[in-house]
Amino acid sequence: MPTKKIDPLGLLFPRRCPVCHEIxxxxxxxxxxxxxxxxxxxxxxxxxxxxxxxxxxxxxxxLDCSRKKHQFxxxxxxxxxxxxxxxxxxxxxxxxxxxxxxxxAEEILQRHAxxxxxxxxxxxxxxxxxxxxxxxxGFNQAELLAKALSVRSGIPMDxxxxxxxxxxxxxxxxxxxxxxxxLKDAFSIQRRNIPYHNLILVDDIYTTGSTIDTAARLLKExxxxxxxxxxxxxxxxx
Length: 238
Ligand SMILES: [Zn+2]
Ligand SMILES: [Zn+2]
What we know:
Blueprint: H1 8-12, H2 33-36, H3 63-67, E1 74-76, E2 79-80, H4 83-94, H5 100-119, E3 123-126, H6 131-137, H7 141-153, E4 163-164, H8 176-183, E5 187-188, E6 198-206, H9 210-221, E7 226-234
Parallel strand pairs: 1-7, 2-7, 3-6, 6-7
Antiparallel strand pairs: 4-5
Helix pairs in contact: 5-7
């Protein structure tokens, strides 16, 4: 039997760039320097509620947020969901590139640490997957991200507060109303009291906000006062 002292994890799973998928090891960074230039950072002006980029400087909220009464107070993300991020997140979720969570968490905190500390949240709560979907995938991408955020920010994570009780259909093809119907009773809370006043929901992508709204509404029924969100990406603004 070979007795070479090598790190089997380092050999089998070297850290890969979340953009080009090549191995990043020489620099010790989480992303290639060239790929960093391709990252679609959200530029200002952006929506004061959901952080989507705005086309018109003078507006405070995006069209979606000016039309809707959201259940959350505010949310932040570092990136727009473009084709670079679409393939990055697809590899993260379906290609077993769980190490990308560290990169996403660092980007979120580098951009938004100040805002996050102003929120005074007691806990990070990942949006749960239905248990059968979680089993199939082997992990919950939002929980991995919340854990990486928790380690770096010192804000504890509570991954058992929200439970997914309904297996929902993919939201992509649905309009706002269909999304809300799809999500009706999607979550439950199996505790009598929630000891938190302010909390941060963590998910991978924010598009229309229906998932965050559904979870926030339920949490507020249990006495939570302020609900924020952190995501890797927001959809394109308007
Ligand atoms: Zn790269
Ligand atoms: Zn908005």
